[in-house]
Write the structure tokens for this entry.
Amino acid sequence: MNIVTTQQHNASRNNLDDSMIPAINIVFLLLIFFMLAGHIEAQDAQLQIPASSSETELNSAELEIHIAASGGYTINGQASQQSLADYMNGLVLTPDTVVICRIHRDLPSSALDPVLQAVQQFGIKTLSIATEQH
Amino acid sequence: MLLEVNPRKSQPISLTPLIDVVFILLLFFMLSSTFSKTKQLELQTAAPSSTQSSATEHNQLLLLADHQVELNGKHYALQAEAFAQQLQRIVTNNESVTLAALASVKVQDTIQLIDKLRTAGITKLDLSPSVAP
């Protein structure tokens, strides 16, 4: 009698495992989907780029300017104590330099002025603004 | 001295801890991954006025606060039909537009207006530095 109950126990456990397998398959599929389709990006509350319907792929840039909500900026990853206008004036750029600006969406337009002025001064025709697609 | 070797029975990994781990991984990827793609908006920067060609008709567009614009000195609401007609006129005559925003207007609003102008079909669009109110 005892033997029979253990067998029943084993059988029910096997059944449970068997019925779990499709569930695990789905979970694995979901896992792989999220791993491949999504990409992990640093979500920085200080630097939320503006939304736009632009379809142009993001190029790599020789000069990447980040302007955060605080007004602080980094140029190619390096912060500086100078004002952005002073820093930009100290640079020497050729007219074919690719410049990308990541600017916080809620900043006033005047925050972009030092970049625009410098870009004009060096004769660079286009300035790219990083935007987020809806 | 004889060490007692305790030969472990090879147990199959039970499913429950495995599923736990997989669920945690799943949750992590679901919560941390973003699907919105970063794109770029290419802007022409306004050339100094001396080099601007006088051959094509030139329009000055100023973005004011509260979705108001000033086109060549005249006020329009962004959603107004009159403004849409003006845009249509610019597109058909293939005129150029120089856009400036008031210094206090948010970057997002400027980008939105540029989007609108591009969608309307304006190709000759320059962005110039902001204007103090």
Remarks:
- Chain B touches chain A through 46 residues (CB under 8 Å).
- The first strand of chain B starts at residue 33 and ends at 34.
- The helical segments of chain B are 15-32, 81-92, 107-120.
- Chain B has a mean pLDDT of 83.
